[in-house]
Amino acid sequence: GCLVLSVSARPVTPMATRQLKHTGIETRAPGVLPRLAVVTTGGTIASVKQEDGTLVPAVSGKLLLQAVPSLNGTVTISGIYAVANIDSSSATPEFWRNVATAVKARLADCNVDAVLVLHGTDTLEQTAWFLQCIDGVGNQPKPVIVTGAMRGADAQAPDGPGNILASAVLAADPKSSGLGVMLVMNDQVFSSRYVTKRNANNNDAFGGSNGGGRIANVISGKVLQYFRPNGTLLCPGYPLPDVLPDVPLQAAYPGVKGSILNYYMSQGSAGVVINAFGDGNMGGVLGDAAALLANTTNFKVVVAKVPLDGTTDPAYGSPGTLGALVKFGVVGAMNMNAFQARIVLMLTLAENPDVTPAELQAIYYKISYPYN
Fold this sequence. Notes:
There is one protein chain. The longest helix has 15 residues, at about 95-105. The radius of gyration is 21 Å and the shape is globular. The protein has helices at about 60-65, 95-105, 125-130, 160-170, 260-265, 285-295, 320-325, 340-350, 355-370; strands spanning about 5-10, 20-25, 35-40, 45-50, 55, 75-85, 115-120, 145, 180-185, 190, 195, 205-210, 215-220, 220-225, 250, 270-275, 300-305, 330. A hairpin with an 8-residue loop joins strand 11 (about 195) and strand 12. It starts with a strand and ends with a helix. Residues about 5-25 have low confidence and may be disordered. By secondary structure, it is α/β, with parallel strands linked by helices.
């Protein structure tokens, strides 16, 4: 079997300490092309126009790769694995599990050097972040890359083939090892930790957040790196759970009713992530409900921020501000966006439903500021 290494990278709390595994060391002989496994899920990259002009996923992974002849000489395709054929707006936590299961299986294969996931762009960054947080995926050395397209496969100038080729070039570069899960679009390489979709229509759809995100560009068949994130520090290596707990994402807005949080709890949700104003403020009505549930029940309340950059900060003390709410067990997601904060809360609660607010806050802090 493949050699297994271990490194410690979990937050230092009783719940959160774990050895992380590097599941695979390169075994190919010199001069042999890197072996790339491809996982397909549908998305615009696999879509063609129907009679009514709308795009629907319809193209197989085999045909998508055949449209990129330059793959020959760059990588060897070790296999194509279809997990789904959906518009990624229909992604579910079960879908995330299925993708992660397929990726983990490929990474554990000594005859695979890298894995590429073809995916729709609507939720591309969320799937990438979920993969990053799974033990044996984001914290192991083999490159894991996700890519998609903003134009359909039958467009006059589709961007999918170029994104696939750039991903293969990245997968074949020895410097791509150990960087965590990466997202490739428009010849740009982003860390799954610091990337978000910034444009709904253009090919240049993704950008970094918090001053980072872009690891490299792929130019003239070469990878030009700017910095090297440590894949073992980007997110704790959570075990892949059989079932993910329900965690809604709730926006703060003027006039929001606090009763919505009680409704979520009554429906069996384990917690909620509130996407709040500024550095974590939501107003007194929603804040009172959040404080009451966090203080008197096992319902977890995590507060993220609407602004892309910066961090949550308990700087204000008026009703409904984070400074007033942390006293009751409400947790700030620090510099994570709401999507990332939700995935971390789901995985944490799947591992330990009784995690304390202090332990949970330590996890968000360690992910946000791994070098502090």
